[in-house]
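Reminder: ligand-aware prediction takes two inputs, not one.
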Amino acid sequence: MYQQKASKVNPVRNSSGAFPPARSSRLGGISETGEADQPLAENPSKIILKSQPEAGQPLADNSDVDPIRKLYFSNGVNKTTSNGAKTKIAIFDLTGCEGCEFHLLSLDELLLDFFQNFEITNWRLLSEKEREDFDIAFIEGAVTTKEQINLLKRIRETSKIVVALGACAISGNVFAQLDPQKRKKLAAKIYDKNYRLKAEFLEPVEKFIKVDEKIPGCPPDIELFKNLLEKLKKEKIVSKIKKVTPPDFTSKIEGHGVLKINFKKKQAKFEVEESERLVEGLLLGKDFEQAPFITSRICGICPIAHNLCSWSALENALEIKISQEIIVLRKILLCGQIIKSHLLHLFFLVLPDYAGVKGSVELCKKYPAEFHLMLNLKRVSDKILETIGGSSAFPSNTMLGGFRNPPKIDELLVIKNSIFEVIDEAQDLIKLFASLETPNLKVNTVFAHILPSENSYPFYPGRFPQAIKEIVRKGSTAKIGVLKDGKIIKVGALARLSHFSKVLQPKAKKAFQELQLDFNNPFHNNLAQAIEILHFLEETINLIEEISEKDLKKSRGIEKVNLPSKIVFGSSCLEAPRGILFHQVKINSQGKIIDYNIIPPTQINLASLEKEIRELVKKRGGVSPWQIKKQVKQLIRAFDPCITCAVH
Ligand code: SF4
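Here is what comes back for the chain with iron/sulfur cluster:
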């Protein structure tokens, strides 16, 4: 059953018609599209997925009409769970990279058992808020604010079993190494002297409430998670029910942000409320080799991008040249990361909106063909990450100047063959996303991307000819990245595709040419990501063929490096799944980090996200407030923001 292929997805809705040219001028890695001011479609979210015949009707998304409600708790009501109901589970995220939650998705087919055996009443990453009661609570992330302490206390009052999920929740992880006394001073350095720190401390969950179970690891050990679920499903667990209302963070995005819309004034804001982990401060004084592993913990969905960008910045600082084989292996690894990140975003975070369900828990149960299509593609990306990176989550096999254990060519050929088996499913994925009817928003966009070193699609290595200015803004824990002259730019799949469609791999290029992808419509970023999944699968095949005759043992990394005689600086940029990522480092003659700066793509995209939300609300002609709020959330998800990256 689980080998089932999803070949019955819907045909391409718009299979003909010319691709609209991006009205643009281009300078370096930057290009600008024109604007066409058109009203929004009245009813843009037509459902085209085919659900299980026995499944019920799609749920209406009318759960949170009040746009600015931000209550942490509602009144408790003492009552017991009704007989025969399933044990209810809620998953809460505090301060971390959300990699624990994404790692739970590596249950793959067992996810269906998980969703079948338990009722998931709250999981912001995957679903709109459903209910406020539960019997078991899983907590991811460290505790960094008084609001989180209050939330934990309330969770403890109602939950029969509290599980600390992963190293951040259990010990604070590496982030707890930062001396609390230094937090304010470091915030002044990283932001500015007037910056008001949101997270004045960073502590484990157990410091504030009793924890019943722990699943250690970073990411948490999935076998321990499975064992715990087995244990828990044996008998019904009933808690003393009180309602716990978590913060009103926008669901189905990575990290914590709050959407506020004033319908009367036609104004909208997306406020970033992620707590600061001060990663750039944590790195100061550490041996330089620790940077790639610590920075990979910034993000649970694109850790390889940080890891590789960090190694490249260090290599540039230390003037270490790397061979073509190592570049190719890193490219394959990054292909795996982009495929996996796009896939998780498209299936778990985007598709539920268009399928008329509140989240992917329901989506997985109701649309098994699409679920297995996603799993088949995800397995290939996981295999790439495990074979080259050493793990499907955080890379453990990368090192300065290469790899600890270079992969064997036979292992790469297995990957190549497995890609051939899923190519048609990647094509089906494009058809699926092409058939979704998206809101008709047109915005003026300035795209930016790295300049690849050869005539190829941009990802790694590359360069960006201009400097990014980071702006600290009141009320936001993320800095905003703009060009030096203040110009707002947009990065990511649409930006890459806008100027490199000619160098897409053949099948991806054909699919692209058959579609009406509109670069002025930010909702089309989803379709652009689907096209990139196919492109990077084909790219991986080519890259494996390119090194199939090479001696990969030579890609072993450098064990001992001569330390510099003076302070050295290095920087690097690459295309992460969401766009350009920058790492910059200064190392002293003892090999210690004395300065580190990271500019992730979401930091850059936040400025255009704000602008486009405002445009959407302004052009809402004739659309109900509920509908417009739904579209704004869809727009935020189409951006694929990674807020934990943006704040770091
Ligand atoms: S850093 Fe590790 S433990 Fe912390 S949230 Fe991410 S995956 Fe979980």
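The CA atoms of residues 402 and 557 lie 4 Å apart. Residues 1-28, 34-48, 53-83 have pLDDT under 50 and may be disordered. We will return to this case in the review session.
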